Amino acid sequence: MATLKDIAKGAGVTVTTVSRVLNNRGYISDETRNKVYRVMKELNYQPNEIARSLARKKSNIIGLIIPTVAHSFFSELSFYLEYYAYNNGYKVLLCNSQLEQKKEKEYIGMLRAHQVDGIIMASHTLEVDEYLSLNLPVVTVDRKVDEIPNVSSDNYYGGSLATNLLIDKGCNKIAYIGGSLKLNLLANKRYEAFINTAKGRNVDFLNVETDINGFKIEEYEELINNLFQKHPEIDGIFASSDLIAASIIKVCNRINKKVPDDVKIVGYDDVKVASLFVPQITTIRQPIENMGKLVIELLVKLIDEKDVINDNILPVKLIERETT
To answer: How is the beta sheet containing 150-153 ordered, strand by strand?
Structure first.
């Protein structure tokens, strides 16, 4: 295995010069830099990233913990987080927690072992104390944990927009289908807005919660089937994600309920595939790219020991398509 001495000898420079090239420190001429890189390639030299990070006390690696990259919202969010992290000189270690506390703790241990400079927490199974004891720069997505900076969309306003639209379209009995309210998420404000708006406009309503442990399409379909069996008069549904909205469309097709004639549907997120379903999903657009960009900006500032705003709420927008 090649060493720094081997690289220095092959390039005709000192070990210090090779180290400066690897760590991008001090002035190095393009000729010298290219010579070092050429010898590294010839000798198949691979720098020890962990050792380098310990030496300069910075790894330029960010840890990202999400429930699952298979969910379209988290998939798109992860894309933008990686994009803006890379543009800021950082690489991302992606961890899927599957909403399992044990797995999430193990990933945090792994990220610490890899000397990450900061962590983005978009999975929400751990207790508050677990977040506060990380002793690392942390930014959360869609969860408020004491003084840890957080980023979310305007969930309450989005819920109000969705519910008012269903009622304005003539729905007489509406339902909300979303994730478990036992999870302490800012997204629960969508449900709060749904309840308050329905009560304020004297419309019958009910709520259906999915399981606390995941994003299971089979479970969505079973819950929706049961909803229509018990309450066939439901004529409007606010789904807390476009994935749930798509499942509602699928079930409606199966049981011969026409969308939007028999049932009107509003989703949330406006992931890219929302406009590809038939019918196209009316939804509340979260600014996913801007959320990802802001998360990285906040985390980089924290890593650089700069002050940031803790509560960061980005605006949402109603996108009306064919399901209403």
So the answer is: 91-96, 61-66, 118-121, 138-141, 150-153, 311-314
Determine contact, residues 177/210, Cβ cutoff 8 Å: yes
Please report which helix (H) or strand (E) contains residue 242, including its range.
helix 242-254
Contacting residues for 143 by C-beta, under 8 A, at least 6 apart: 121, 124, 150, 152, 184, 185, 186
Task: Answer yes or no: is pLDDT of 54 > 50.
Answer: no
- Tens digits of residue pLDDT in 127-165: 667 767 778 899 999 988 888 999 999 999 999 999 999
Three-class secondary structure of residue 13 per DSSP: coil
Q: How far apart are CA 154 and CA 315, in angstroms?
A: 5
CB-side exposure of 136: number of CA atoms within 13 Å?
26
Question: What domain count does the chain have?
Answer: 3
324 domain residue, yes or no: no
State the CATH number of the domain containing residue 106. Answer: 3.40.50.2300
**pTM for the structure as a whole:** 0.81
* Residues paired with 150 in a beta bridge: 140, 311
- Indicate the pairing of strand 118-121 with strand 61-66: parallel
HSE of 277 in the Cβ direction (CA atoms, 13 Å)?
A: 26
Task: Identify which of 52, 26, 24 has the alpha carbon closest to the alpha carbon of residue 37.
Answer: 24
In the β-sheet with 173-178, what is the strand arrangement from edge to edge?
Answer: 204-209, 173-178, 236-239, 264-269, 282-285, 317-319
- 275 with 304, same domain: the answer is no
Structure tokens at 11: 């390039």
Please indicate, yes or no, if residue 97 is contained in any of the structural domains: yes
190, part of any domain:
yes
Structural domain including 139 reads 61-151+289-312
3-state secondary structure of 207: strand
Coil, strand or helix: which one is 283?
strand
Instruction: Please count the CA atoms within 13 angstroms of the CA of 58 that sit on its side-chain side.
Output: 11
Q: Among 208, 235, 207, which Cα is nearest to 221's?
A: 208
SS3 of 261, please?
Answer: coil
In a domain, 52, yes or no: no
